[in-house]
Design a protein that fits this description.
alpha+beta, Aldehyde Oxidoreductase, domain 4, Aldehyde Oxidoreductase, domain 3, 7-stranded mixed beta sheet, 5-stranded mixed beta sheet
């Protein structure tokens, strides 16, 4: 286990290595690629939320001067079933049909055809020339209605998975899952107080600023090069190869800079279209979504309907809990019901529980990951129930959580026992924080809630190259969406014993570095960082061997200290230490260039916990909720770059506050999203938010050489319930459905 030691560079917050290019406009994002003879692709999207496609006629578009290619579902290979790896998961056939509709369109905005033309304007005109014949069908837009026995089916071949026996009839319930332990009935019988709640949360978008974009160029030999803004170019390459039935060796994916993702850029949308259009036109093809397309045709997070029941003794000991969690999958199966079910009770010791989760098809865009996918919705229900329980018991809400807090050795609801974790440390910090100890402002309400995310490891690779002057180049395959380049530089510098300024980190393309899974799941600093550390240790071993050869001593008589090889204590060699620069300068004489490498499937990702506090004030005349103050406390294991960790905590809080107060997908009765733009889908701006205070707790993860836990997901989990509990305290009313928009809050106040 990493000890509390004074590191030389880890724990500092140097200037980000990509900062200068980004603030000066030199950084190359997805839409910035320009190639000779490049043409522009656009997508024709369905005007219906649910309809059969009777025919697609591309001939008029192809006859237009300056239109070089057009494709529809008929131009794709037969969609083959198979599992997709990585964070998003799902079925290959569903992915293919989401990229381009075949026999049916399943949401308003579903891609039906695509064209490539000399200009964007000409491509848009060509879309209007495409003739599509539809047979409209009733859309299924409501979770409860979708689960009804007589509901219109999105997929006549969808039979609910994970039931004891295969059902006789198809259903819009794609899958169910259950987690259980102990005797729930006995647990509730032992309870002195039982609370129940039912909560609904709408679909919400990740709100990344950069729309999806890519450029594809296919050469005469059939090899494709694709530039794209993605969280995982290796997995994009794998998905594209399956969708297009291409040899993965014929695909090269290059990750551009990425203007935000939060899980939303782990899904393939445009890239296969650009590849096909480039194949047909024999020209590079660039495709860029409009903001409206991003909202209508890419994945938000699931809307949910959750029911929770919790029992406790008079002293606050939890005795039993049940949860029923229904998640909207959108048009294709794959809602994050699993992580939601795994997270809902995870912060607490609970001997008796039962969780049922459902993955439900509706005629809306297929959902995608959004920062701790599934956990904010389910934990909102539990944390609101605990707030109500604390009121019933007359207990401080932090004390109630502390009494039941999971700790080292507690068995998580999803199976394993926790190693060292920091939940109790977060609770203790919250109880003592000035925000919690100061009086609540007059007329305001204070809310508290916990957050959790289990984090993941998965596969990563890294190489470390030592340049002739002893400077260091790290090459790895994870796009940097949260400061990972700086984290890799810091860990490499610490391990090698050099300064941060001597290290550079590059993101290699799929032909230039080893495979790495997606940048997501809060895995990159943990898993890819572990690979970087191991690659640096490989370098150190080589340097010690070369120093030994230079000095004429055995390798075990050489040690590495502060970036240089030194004789081990007791070695009577009259030699001077050799720095990394010394060894690199002499590398040609001692064996050639210094190159370290590592690849791994990282195990032991440490669970991350948080406690958030908020004070809000509710205008009883308008229903407007103002957040007066907000504090986020979270266990980072070890904060490699504390400023980045604080930024993750503040960013997650801002997104969660927005989701709680304003953000929602609004559909009309035909399934058309009515607020598909940032003017009407209102994410928080600076004037909507207070200064978000942060406190980093460091309980090292024993599975990482520097104690790292992932920190990117947990920050968004608690804010929904924090705001809900603060509004409850301010108004005296439990408003169960989000968001707390002025009309909803005002209606609740008027009806009280």
């Amino acid at each position: 286990m990493a000890e509390a030691v004074d590191y030389k560079v880890i724990g500092t917050s140097p200037v980000r290595p990509d900062g200068v290019d980004k603030v000066t406009g030199r950084a190359q994002y997805g839409a910035d690629m320009n190639l000779p003879n490049m043409i522009y692709g656009k997508v024709l999207r369905s005007p219906h939320a649910h309809a059969r496609i009777k025919s697609v006629d591309l001939s008029k578009a192809l006859a237009m001067p300056g239109v070089y290619a057009a494709v529809s579902g008929a131009d794709f290979p037969q969609a083959q079933h198979g599992e997709i790896g990585g964070e998003g998961g799902g079925d290959v056939a569903d992915l293919a049909k989401n990229i381009m509709a075949r026999d049916k369109v399943l949401y308003h905005g579903h891609a039906v055809a695509a064209v490539a033309a000399r200009s964007v304007q000409l491509a848009e005109a060509a879309l209007e020339a495409i003739d599509v014949s539809y047979e409209p069908l009733p859309p299924v837009l409501d979770l409860d209605a979708a689960m009804a026995v007589d509901a219109t089916l999105l997929d006549e071949n969808c039979f609910t998975k994970n039931l004891p026996e295969k059902p006789d009839k198809p259903s819009n319930i794609a899958a169910v899952m259950q987690l259980a332990r102990g005797d729930v009935e006995a647990g509730f019988a032992d309870a002195d107080v039982i609370v129940e709640g039912e909560y609904r949360i709408p679909m919400a978008h990740q709100g990344y600023i950069e729309p999806h974009a890519c450029t594809a160029s296919v050469n005469e030999g059939g090899q494709a090069t694709v530039w794209c803004c993605t969280q995982g170019h290796f997995e994009f390459r794998a998905m594209a190869s399956k969708v297009l039935n291409m040899n993965i060796a014929d695909l090269k994916f290059i990750a551009s800079e990425i203007g935000g993702g939060f899980g939303g850029k782990t899904v393939l949308y445009l890239e296969p279209l650009a590849i096909l259009l480039s194949q047909k036109s024999h020209r590079p093809v660039k495709m860029t979504m409009t903001r409206e397309e991003v909202f209508r045709a890419t994945g938000p997070t699931s809307g949910t309907h959750c029911k929770v029941k919790v029992g406790a003794k008079k002293d606050g000991t939890l005795t039993a809990a049940t949860a029923w969690l229904a998640y909207e999958a959108g048009a294709f199966a794959g809602a994050p019901m699993g992580p939601g079910a795994m997270s809902i009770f995870a912060p607490y010791r609970l001997d008796n529980f039962h969780i049922e989760a459902l993955d439900v098809l509706v005629n809306k865009p297929k959902v995608a990951a959004y920062r701790a996918p599934g956990a904010p919705q389910s934990m909102h229900a539990m944390e609101c129930a605990l707030d109500d329980l604390a009121r019933e018991l007359g207990m401080d809400p932090i004390d109630l959580r502390m009494k039941n807090a999971a700790e080292e050795g507690t068995q998580a609801p999803y199976g394993p026992k926790f190693p060292a974790i920091g939940f109790k440390a977060c609770l203790e910090a919250a109880k003592q924080h000035p925000h919690y100890t100061r009086p609540i402002p007059e007329g305001a309400g204070r809310g508290v809630a916990a957050g959790f995310w289990f984090n993941v490891g998965m596969q990563s690779s890294a190489e470390v190259h030592i340049n002739e002057n002893g400077t260091v180049t790290v090459v790895e395959g994870n796009p940097d969406i949260g400061g990972s380049r700086a984290s890799m530089c810091l860990m490499a510098a610490e391990t090698l014993g050099v300064t941060y300024e001597q290290v550079r980190t590059l993101i290699g393309d799929t032909e230039s570095t080893g495979f790495s899974n997606v940048t997501g799941g809060s895995r990159t600093t943990f898993a890819t960082g572990m690979a970087v550390v191991q690659a640096c240790e490989d370098i150190i071993a080589q340097c010690k061997a070369r120093a030994a050869a230079t000095w004429g001593v055995d390798e075990d008589q050489v040690e590495w200290e502060d970036g240089q090889a030194v004789p081990a204590p007791g070695v009577n060699a009259d030699v001077k230490p050799l720095s990394l620069a010394d060894i690199a300068a002499n590398a040609a004489r001692t064996g050639g260039p210094l190159l370290g490498r590592a690849s791994l499937n990282a195990q032991g990702a440490g669970a991350s916990f948080a406690v958030n506090i908020a004070d809000v004030k509710v205008d009883r005349d308008t229903g407007k909720v103002d957040v007066l103050s907000y504090t986020a406390i979270q266990d980072a294991g070890k904060a490699i770059h504390p400023a980045y960790v604080e930024g993750q905590m503040q960013g997650g809080a801002a997104q969660g506050i927005g989701w709680a107060l304003n953000e929602e997908y609004i559909f009309n009765t035909d399934g058309v999203m009515e607020n598909a733009g940032f003017l009407d889908y209102r994410i928080p701006v600076a004037s909507d938010l207070p200064m978000i205070d942060t406190q980093i707790i460091e309980v090292p993860n024993p599975s990482h050489p520097y104690g790292v836990r992932g920190v990117g997901e947990t920050p968004i989990v608690a804010p929904l319930a924090v705001i809900a509990n603060a509004v409850r305290a301010a108004t005296g009313l439990r408003i169960n459905d989000l968001p707390f928009s002025p009309p909803r809050v005002l209606e609740a106040l008027d009806n009280a």
